[in-house]
């Protein structure tokens, strides 16, 4: 805020000099902090997510195992991309899982045809998802609002049906697409690993670090995904701060005004749609790179709905929200779904028997197979009380602390509103 | 030939003849006022000029080219900007962003993919938007979210947005409605300055006769979708038909 006041007071000549002098990699101010936070969180995730000693009873809440961490960042990429469409333009797609699935199929095909190096697979998954989203976006964006959502949903379900049955030669239908020893793998050299790898380094390679009672898994595949997500996040910041990003927010705010201001909103929304489709394809390609298998269920509407939940839960239109939302939902899915009655009885064992059974009975529907119930409740609470998602929650907490330090006038509030991203 | 030529335009809404055989010629670099009672069809006429509505019959020529059949953004790119009767701004964006967007539209056309460089790096646009905001005295409000502005400020902002495009034809639909007297006078001053300084043609709809007579070079009186008379402000003031149809209800 102070920066802004000086900005106008100093006049154009000095501001221009200032503008040039500041910034790291084209980022400035809060964005540098945000980028730093994401970089730290992803790099240190194997440690942060395993706060409890492996032998303690709390170890079941640890989330620092490779398989889950990979999912955190892969769905993070999916949600970051989805947010570029939904968060900025307000166009709510219910079909983005189709692009995820297409990405996975493309990657597996590259494994089958060329070999297990993941680079060609990732490149193709982004390209194919981009083309596919260009077609679907071009048609769906002729409508807006609920009709747009329904169109994308219909396309995704068609894609699912095609993958499941009609296109069996390409998708291997119900069984799912996988690599067989009879596949050509033209570029696979004899000494290369026969599982997905990056120039010889296997995705599943894991170094386990033991420190006292703690154990931390440093998995190569996770770090590949993490680096990709950090890059994806960086690109998203640049898009958010660019004139293109501003135009996308203008679409959401007042599309009429935009058109009467000489701007054609259609290509802007289509570009956002394709970019988010490519992010989804990349996520799909990474999924296949961690586990060389692609099934049609990856395209189902539930998967499309999941990314919507992630984005809204974290905070649609905010930069970091989708990453948080993706992490939270995947954490719930894995940790809460593992808690069964046996575990519950253990927790409440210190209670008298009658009360123990009662408590287990109350908690039971919300854990294990019922984790969706918890998720649903959480989602409802967030949408009702924190429409801006987890990010808004964080901001409210932060503003309570800030109010103590300086009297927060209208200016501070305006600044907070402006800095929602 | 005027820069804007409206010929025999008709527009019906169901059984209602909103515009009946409207002919209008606006000469370049003049200010043409359209007045008339509520429901006369003034806004409908503007809607036909900017592609919001398509007339049932008739033609609309701007700068020698037909406007009909073009999309709103194409018509704007021809050089027509409009201030709406109820402010149309980007409510979720800041005042400054609101003004930058039309600057981008003017410089880059209907679509350009500049997705990597930050907005702040576009120094020419930033400077342009800054001086535009200074011109309408809103520089100190640059970082306010536009939806939280007062109604008068929203109008001023929308006017700044349109002016920053340096349009050839500026359409103003009741630009001072809901403004305090002081703001109205500021707006008149602003429009007078714009008119004196730039090559700009204005078409203004206004109920406030003070505004009309301060700015207009010619006035068309519209009643029930049909132009009654068109003349200079002095002649209009004394015209018996006009007094009867319209001015009788307003202070002159
Ligand atoms: N989209 C529409 N559909 C149906 N009727 C309409 C539509 N737009 C305008 N009308 C009708 O056409 C007539 C002319 O409306 P218009 O808005 O052009 O009047 P106006 O001269 O601008 O009035 P005001 O001074 O109140 O703004 C009115 O009776 C109005 O109800
Ligand atoms: Mg009107």
UniProtKB/TrEMBL annotation, chain B:
Pfam families: ABC_tran, BCA_ABC_TP_C
GO MF annotation, one: ATP binding
Keywords per UniProt: ATP-binding, Nucleotide-binding, Transport
Domain ABC transporter: 4-249
GO CC term (a single one): plasma membrane
Superkingdom in the source lineage: Bacteria
PANTHER family for this protein: CONSERVED COMPONENT OF ABC TRANSPORTER FOR NATURAL AMINO ACIDS-RELATED
UniProt name for this protein: ABC transporter ATP-binding protein
């Amino acid at each position: 805020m102070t920066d802004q006041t000086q900005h106008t007071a100093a006049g154009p000549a000095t501001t221009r000099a200032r503008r040039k002098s500041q910034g790291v990699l084209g980022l400035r101010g809060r964005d540098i902090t945000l980028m730093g936070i994401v970089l730290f969180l992803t790099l240190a995730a194997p440690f942060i997510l395993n706060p409890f000693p492996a032998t303690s009873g709390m170890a079941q809440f640890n989330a620092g195992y490779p398989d889950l961490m990979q999912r955190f960042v892969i769905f993070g990429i999916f949600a970051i991309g989805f947010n570029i469409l939904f968060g900025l333009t307000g166009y709510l797609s219910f079909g983005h899982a189709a692009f995820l699935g297409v990405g996975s199929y493309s990657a597996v095909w590259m494994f089958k045809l060329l070999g297990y190096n993941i680079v060609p697979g990732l490149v193709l998954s982004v390209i194919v998802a981009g083309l596919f989203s260009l077609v679907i976006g071009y048609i769906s964006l002729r409508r807006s609002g609920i009709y747009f959502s329904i169109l994308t949903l219909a396309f995704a379900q068609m894609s699912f049906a095609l993958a499941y049955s009609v296109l069996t030669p390409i998708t291997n239908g119900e069984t799912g697409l996988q690599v067989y020893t009879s596949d050509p793998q033209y570029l696979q050299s004899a000494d290369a690993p026969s599982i997905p790898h990056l120039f010889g380094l296997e995705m599943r390679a894991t170094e386990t670090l033991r420190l006292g009672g703690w154990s931390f898994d440093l998995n190569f595949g996770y770090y590949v995904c993490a680096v990709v997500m950090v890059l994806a996040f960086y690109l998203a910041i640049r898009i958010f701060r660019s004139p293109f990003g501003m135009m996308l927010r203008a679409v959401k705010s007042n599309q009429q005004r935009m058109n009467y201001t000489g701007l054609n909103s259609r290509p802007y929304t289509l570009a956002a749609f394709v970019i988010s489709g490519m992010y989804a394809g990349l996520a799909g390609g990474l999924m296949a790179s961690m586990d060389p298998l692609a099934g049609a269920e990856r395209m189902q509407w539930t998967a499309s709905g999941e990314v919507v939940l992630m984005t809204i839960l974290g905070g649609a239109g905010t930069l970091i929200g989708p990453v948080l939302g993706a992490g939270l939902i995947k954490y719930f899915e894995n940790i809460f779904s593992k808690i069964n009655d046996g575990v519950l009885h253990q927790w409440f064992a210190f209670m008298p028997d009658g009360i123990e059974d009662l408590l287990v009975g109350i908690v039971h529907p919300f854990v294990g197979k019922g984790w969706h119930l918890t998720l649903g409740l959480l989602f409802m609470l967030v949408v009702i009380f924190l429409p801006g998602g987890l990010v808004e929650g964080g901001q409210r907490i932060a503003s309570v602390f800030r109010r103590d330090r300086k009297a927060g006038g209208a200016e501070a509030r305006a600044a907070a509103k402006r800095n929602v991203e | 030939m005027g820069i804007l030529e409206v010929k025999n335009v008709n527009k019906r809404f169901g059984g209602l003849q909103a515009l009946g055989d409207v002919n209008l010629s606006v000469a370049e670099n003049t200010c043409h006022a359209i007045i008339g009672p509520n429901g006369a069809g003034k806004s409908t006429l503007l809607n036909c000029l900017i592609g919001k509505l398509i007339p049932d019959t008739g033609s609309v020529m701007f700068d020698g080219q037909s406007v009909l059949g073009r999309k709103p953004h194409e018509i704007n790119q021809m050089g027509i900007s409009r201030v709406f009767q109820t402010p149309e701004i980007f409510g979720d964006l800041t005042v400054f962003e609101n003004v930058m967007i039309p600057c981008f539209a003017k410089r880059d056309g209907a679509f350009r993919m500049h997705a990597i460089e930050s907005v702040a790096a576009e120094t020419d646009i930033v400077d342009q938007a800054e001086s535009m905001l200074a011109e309408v005295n809103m520089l100190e409000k640059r970082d306010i979210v536009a939806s939280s502005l007062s109604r008068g400020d929203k109008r001023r902002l929308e006017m700044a947005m349109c002016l920053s495009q340096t349009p050839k034809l500026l359409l103003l639909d009741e630009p001072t409605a809901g403004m305090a007297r002081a703001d109205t006078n500021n707006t008149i001053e602003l429009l007078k300055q714009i008119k004196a300084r730039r090559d700009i043609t204005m078409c203004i709809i206004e109920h406030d006769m003070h505004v009309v007579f301060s700015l207009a070079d010619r006035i068309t009186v519209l009643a029930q979708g049909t132009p009654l008379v068109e003349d200079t402000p002095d002649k209009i003031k004394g015209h018996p038909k006009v007094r009867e149809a319209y001015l009788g209800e307003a202070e002159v």
